[in-house]
Amino acid sequence: VERTRSLGKNAHYLPEACMPKWHKRVALTKEEEEFYGCDVTTAGNTYYYRAVIFEELMEKYKVKLWGSFPRWVESPTRKVFQGVSVGELEKSKAFNGAAIVVNTFQGEVFGVNQRFFEIAGCGGFQICEHRDAIQEFLEIGKEVVTFYTVSDLIEKIDYYLAHPEERQRIADAAYVRAHKEHTFQKRLRAMLDIIAKLT
Q: From residue 125, how far is each of 42, 72, 75, 116, 172 by CA, in Å?
């Protein structure tokens, strides 16, 4: 957006969002608790950067990875890959079944990914890589937790696994904020408002 504006164009940044129809708290059956339950999870493509981080985590925690695992990625994390790509309500179940959802960014140099909003919308407790832009969407420490290094991440996982009530308070706050401010309906309204001002 900044680069486009530097060219004199009227550019606006609208982040992604959650879809309340799918991204919401869901009650899990005993079978689903067994299937999705773990200490740490994430969903998405297992690229090398993410794999290296989860290699450190799988030695210490019960980890489950959902999504895709390309054949060309050689990593011990294949052992914790569940072989299932989750979406819609299944993603909500995966995020609700885990104590902690770890969110790593790859292409998002300054901003956040869609999973950032999905986790909050599902009611999951999220620890994500730090980005300055996060503060625009969720309050760090009260609605989301961020990390800078793998050792920092492990320290925070240890802390929040040992403090489930604090973990729940943060997840609850993010859930309310996501459904109030960060839905695709809100984004579309914002986009249409911007377009209306141009006509």
A: 11, 31, 26, 11, 8
Please name the residue that has the structure tokens 């079978």: 31
Residue 58's CB is within 10 A of a number of other CB atoms, namely 19
Q: How far apart are CA 59 and CA 44, in angstroms?
A: 20
Q: What is the pLDDT of residues 89-100, one digit of tens each?
A: 999 999 999 999
Contact 18, 117 (CB under 8 A): yes
User: Is pTM beyond 0.70 here?
Assistant: yes
**Phi, psi angles (nearest 5°) of residue 66:** -120, 150
Q: Which residue type is seen at 179?
A: H
Rounded mean pLDDT, 106-113: 80
- Pick from 193, 195, 16: nearest CA to 119: 16
Q: Is 7 helix (H, G, I), strand (E, B) or coil?
A: coil
Strand pairing category for 145-147 and 126-129: parallel
State phi, psi for 187 to the nearest 5 degrees: -65, -40
